[in-house]
Amino acid sequence: MTTKMFGAKVPRVEDQRFLRGQGRYVDDLLTDDPRLLHSAVLRSPHAHARIVDIDVSDVLDVEGVVAVWTYDDLAGAMAEPLPLLIPHPALTHGRTQYALAKDEVNYVGEAIAFVVAVDRYVAEDAVSRIRVAYEQLTPVVGIAAARAATSAVHDDVPDNVGARMEQENGDARAAIARAPHTLTLELDVERSACTPMEGRGTVARWDPDTSRLTVWSSTQTSTGVRGCVAAKLGLDLAKVDVVTPDVGGGFGVKINHPWPEELLVPLAAMTLGKPVKFTEDRREHFISSAHERAQQHHVEVGFDDDGRVLGLNVEFWHDHGAYTPYGLIVPIITSTQLLGPYKPQNYRVAFESLYTNTVIVTPYRGAGRPQGCFVMERTMDAIAAYLGKDRTEVRSTNFIQPDEFPYEHGLVFQDGRELTYDSGDYPASLAKLKALVGWDEFEDFRAEMAAQGRRVGIGLACYVEGTGVGPYEGAHVHVETSGKVKVATGLTTQGQGHQTAFAQIVADTLGVRFEDVEITTGDTRKMPYAVGTFASRAAVMSGSAIHLAALRAKEKALRIAAEALEASEDDLEIADGVVSVRGTDASIDLGTIAVLSNPLRYAFDEASKAATQFSVGDPGKPPVAEDDEPGLEGKDFYSPPRSTFANGMHAVIVETDPDTAEIRILKYAVVHDCGHLINPMIVEGQIHGGVAQGVGGALYERMAYDESGQLLNASFMDFLMPYATEVPTSIDIDHLETPSPLNPLGIKGAGEAGVIPSAAVFAAAIEDAEGFPITSMPISPSELFELRLAHTDEPHPTTTPTTAG
Amino acid sequence: MKPAPFAYLRPSSLEEALAALAGEQGAKVLAGGQSLVPLLNMRLAAPSMLIDINALPDLGHVRVAEDGVRVGALARHAEVLASSEAERAQPLLGMALRHVAHPTIRNRGTTVGSIVHADAAAEMPMVLRLLDGSVDVASVRGRRTIPAAELFAGPLESTLAHDEVAVEAFFPGLAPDAGVAFQEIARRHGDYALVGVAAHVETDGDAVTRASLGFVSVSDVPVVVDVTHALGDPAAKALAELDPADDIHASAAYRAHLVKVLAPRVLAAATDHARSRAGEATQP
Question: Which SMART domains does this chain map to (chain B) (predicted)?
C-alpha cells in the first residue's frame, strides 16, 4: 500500500519533547513525592568468590538508612534463582543468578546486598559499610580460559560448557573434502555492550489500601516484567501494573528481565509501604547489566574455481558470561544468520556456549549477527583473495537468486521455526552498492592516493537479518467522540519513533488525520498482551497489529455510518476522519459515529446528548445488539508464521596512516532493503545510529577485562564510545523495497541493520589497505601497528591488489 | 556514583580560603572541578571539606605583559584559549589548549587547576614545563613562586604543600626568533593523548640555538628533553628519558613509535615557526 502518510518522511513528533528536555524517564518519576526512598546495591568486587559472611551491623546506624536486604532476607520465589527466560533443549547446563547472591559470586558487579535509604547518597554511604568476608576462587576470564577449563565457573558445570549445539544441512565435511580448493580461518570478535544513554532503572509504588503494585521500569518488555514481578512477589497478575515511561535507549540490554533490582525495588516498596527508586549509574551499567559479542570461530570452507562455496563447516565458542538468563538466542542467531545472502551447498555449524566469570551476555543490537556476518564475509574475502577474483564477483556467485524465494536453508532459526527467507533481491542490492561507493573506480582512486603517499582500502559486507520474530503483538484502536484516535500497543518504545510511524499507519488505514492519533506503548494497563521490543520487530509486529485493529475500527465505523447515512457501505469512504457517501454531500464524522456507537443513559456534554436513550436506537431492540459492543473500537493481534528477512550491504573506504596507523573513514555507503518503508527518515535515522554504533564496535569499543576479572574500562572515559567526531560525517544510503509477503504492510524490521556488517566491512577495508589478513575485531591503531610489525617481511599490499579492476 | 559526605565552604576572600585550608587537614580546593568531581563521585577521593574558590575575587584574569602571560586560578581553559593577546604572546597556549578535552569541559575547567592536578597525560602541565613557566602559590604562611621544573613530584602529585593554593600560572612569552609547535595522537577527539609532543625552538639566523621537546602521556611527570644537540634524531634522545607504558588503549611499543613519528615532525614545525616569526620580525 502506498498512500499519503505511509512512506512519507514525516518528522518525528517525539523529537520536540525529547530535544526540549521534556522526556520523562524512570528517574524523573515521583520526584515530588516526599515519601520516595532510594536504593543502592552492594556489588561483588571479585570475579569469583565464595561468600563466607556478610555483616550489615554498621549499616543501620547510618542516619537515613531505612532497610537492607541480603539473600538471607529473601523468601519464597524471591529466594529462588532468577528465571531462565528462554530454555532450549541444547542448554543442558543453564544457570541463573539469585536476586542477591547466595553463597557465591561469579562476576565483578553481581548484586550482594540491597540498601534503601532517604537518598542515593546515604544509600551509597551505607553500602560502603557492609562488610563481606570472601573466600577467593579462581576466576575464568575469556574464551581461552573457559575452553581450557582448568578452573570451573560453576562446580556442577563440566568444562564450563553450558550448551553444545550443532545443525547441518547436507554433509559439509564430505563436501569440503571433495572440493577443489579449501581454506581454514581462525576469527575472533571481542566483547562490547549496548551502553544506552539511560541505564537501567525501576520505581515501584505499593498501595496498601487497594493492595495494588505499580512498577515503572526502563525496560524493553513491560509485560515480561509484570509477569516476573507477579510470580516472584506472589501477587495476582491483576494486582500488578507495569508502565514503561520514556526510555533513553535499550539496544537489547533492557530486553533481559527481571534484573535483580526490578524485583528488589517492588519488594522493598511493598515491605516498607513507601515508593522506592533504583537508578543505575554508569559504572553499574558496565559491570552489572549485560555485554555481548565475544566469540571465537574456526572456519573450514571448500569451494570451486568460481569461488562457489561447496561446503562450509563452522565451529565456534561463545562467551555467555556467568549466567544464561537469555538462553542460547545469541549463538543460535550467529549460527544461522552467518549464512547471509548466500547458499553454501552444504553447511554445518557447531558451537559451545561457555561460562566465564564476567558480566552476563544477552542480545545487543544485531544479537549475534555481527559475528556471523564477520565470519562469512571474511570467508568470502579470503576466497576472493585466494582465487585472485574481485570480491563482489565471489559474492555474486554465491547469492540466493531473486527467483529462489522463499528460500529454505534447512536449519532452525532462533524462534524455533524453519530458517526460510521470504524475499530479497541481492544482485540488485549489490549493483546499487557498487554504484554508490564507486567500487569499479576504486583502483584509480587508490593509485591517486598512493601517488600522494596515502594508503586507502575498500571493503564490503552483506547481511541478511531475520526481523519481526513472533510470537505476536496486539493493538487496540479507540475512536473517541471528539474524533481523536487513541491507540495502544503493548510493546515498549526506547526512542524508535513509534508515535510517528504507528500514527502514520493509523492515519492511512483508518482515514484520519495524523495529528489526531495518539499512540500508547508499554503500559500493561492499556494492553496486557504483548511481547516486547527487540529483534527489529516493533514495526512488523505492532505495525501490522495496529493496521489490523484499525481495519476493524474502520469496518465498524462504516457499518454505523451506512445506517446513519442510509447508504450502502460500499459507497462510503473515510478521509480526514469524515465518512462520506461517494459523489454526494452526505457525510458523518468519526466522532459522531463514536457517539452513536455507545448508547448512553447520561448526557455530559453536547455530543453525548445525541447518544442518550431517548435519542437513539430502536426502542424495540436491545441498545447494544447481541453480536456488537459499545464504542468505536478495533482490537486485533498479528502473529506471523515466521520471521521476515531484511537485508543490506555496506561498503567503506578507509585510509590508514602509514606512520601513525590511525584509521580514517573516507566514505561509507549503505544499501538497505527492509521492504516497504513506513517512514524513510526514521529508517535512515536507524541506519545512521547503527553505523555509528558499528564504528564503535569495530574501531573503538571493547571490554578490557584483566586476568582477575576486573573490568578496567568501566567508564565513558575508557570505554571509547565514538563521538560525533569519530563517525562518518555522511553516510550514503540507497534503498531497495522488496516487500515481505508475510504481513499486510509488506514491511521488514530495520532497527538493528546498521550495526550488523560493521566489523566485517572495516576488517575488509583495512585488510585491503594493508595487504595482510585482519582476523580479529575490534582493531585499534596500536593493534594495527603491531600487525604491521608482524607482517614487515611481506610485500607491500598496494603492489598486489586484491580487488580486480 | 555519589560522593561521600564532605563539608563545603565557599569563601569570599583568599585569606578566608587559606585559613580554612590551613585548619582542615582533609580539605581540598575546588576550582573547575573537572578532575576532582569525578574522583569524588567515584569515591576515589573523599576529602573532609571542599573549599570552593569560585567566589574569590580577582583570580579570573588572563593578563598579558611584556614578559609573558599570567593566568589566574579561576581563568577557564576557554577564556585562555579565547584570548588573542595571550595567543600572540605565547602561541603554544592556543595550540595545546585546543587539545584539552571538549568545549564543555574547557568552559568549566581551569588552566591553573589542570596544572596543579599534575597529570602527565594532560597538556597544560607539560606546556608550563616546556616553557619554563612557574606557578604562584599562597598560604597563611605567605606567597612563593614555584618554577615549573620544581612543580611536579610524581603521578598526580605536585610540590604544593597541603595548605597552599595556586593563584596564578606564568607562561613566558615567545621570543621573536623562537617557535613552538604541538601535535598529539588521541583515540577520540578530545581524549587524553596516547602521545603528545610539543617543541620549543630558538633560532639565530638559520641556526637552531636551542631546541627542547615536551611530552604528554609517556612518563609519570611532564618531561622536557633538550634536543639542541640531537636535531637529527630527537626521538632517540627523548626515548632515553621517557618511559612509555602499556595500557588498555595502546602498547608501550606503539607509544614509543608515535614518539618517533611526532618528535621530528613537531621539531620541524617549530623550527619553521621560528623562522617565519624571525622573518616577520625583521620585515620593515
Answer: CO_deh_flav_C
CA atoms within 13 A on the CB side of A648: 37
d(CA A585, CA A566) in angstroms, rounded, equals: 13
Instruction: Among A638, A660, A680, give the residue marking a domain's end.
Output: A638
pLDDT in tens, A731-753: 999 999 999 999 999 999 999 98
Are both A455 and A532 inside the same structural domain? no
- DSSP state for residue B1 in the 8-state scheme: -
Q: Is the pLDDT of residue A4 over 90?
A: no
Angstrom distance (rounded) from CA B284 to CA B274: 18
Q: Chain centroid to CA A172: how far?
A: 32
Distances (CA, A) of B141 to B13, B18, B19, B22, B161: 16, 9, 10, 9, 11
Show the domain range for B213. 178-277
Q: Supply angle C-alpha A775, A778, A782, rounded to 5.
A: 95
**Cβ–Cβ under 8 Å, residues B5 and A125:** yes
Q: At what angle do helices A781-790 and A758-770 cross, to 10 degrees?
A: 40
Residue A504 inside a domain? The answer is yes
Instruction: Please enumerate in sequence order all residues whose Cβ is within 8 A of that of A34, keeping only pairs 6 or more positions apart, or say none.
Output: none
d(CA A699, CA A703): 13
Q: Is residue B282 in some structural domain?
A: no
pLDDT in tens, A564-605: 999 999 999 999 999 999 999 999 999 999 999 998 888 888
Are the beta carbons of B5 and A785 separated by less than 8 Å? Answer: no
Q: What is the pTM of this model?
A: 0.95
Between CA A494 and CA A509 the distance in angstroms is 25
**Residue A239 — pLDDT band, cuts 50, 70, 90?**
very high
Whether residue A357 lies inside any domain: the answer is no
Structural domains counted in chain A: 3
The distance of A600 to chain B (nearest Cα, Å) reads 56
Strand ordering across the sheet containing A644-656 = A455-467, A644-656, A663-673, A732-735
Q: A258 preceded by cis ω (within 30°)? A: yes
Contacts of A729 (CB under 8 A, 6+ apart): none
Please tell me the predicted confidence (pLDDT) of residue A611: 77
Distance from CA of A125 to the nearest CA of B (A): 6
The torsion region of residue A516 among left (phi > 0), alpha (psi -120 to 50) and beta comes to alpha
Does residue A298 sit within a domain?
no
Give me the CATH number covering residue B20: 3.30.43.10
Q: Which of B156, B172, B188 is the last residue of a domain?
A: B172
Q: Given an 8 Å threshold on Cβ–Cβ distance, is B251 in contact with A282?
A: no
Percent of chain B with pLDDT over 90: 96
Question: Which of B42, B189, B250 is opposite residue A782, by nearest beta carbon?
Answer: B250
Q: Number of Cβ pairs closer than 8 Å across A and B? A: 64
Any idea how long chain B is?
284
ipTM surpassing 0.90: yes
Residue at which a domain ends, from A604, A638, A672? A638
Chain B neighbors of A726, CB-CB under 8 A: 188-189
pLDDT tens, position by position, A619-657:
888 888 889 999 999 999 999 999 999 999 999 999 999
The domain of A624 spans 473-638
Q: From A749, A751, A747, select the one nearest A1 (Cα to Cα).
A: A747
CATH code at position A681: 3.30.365.10
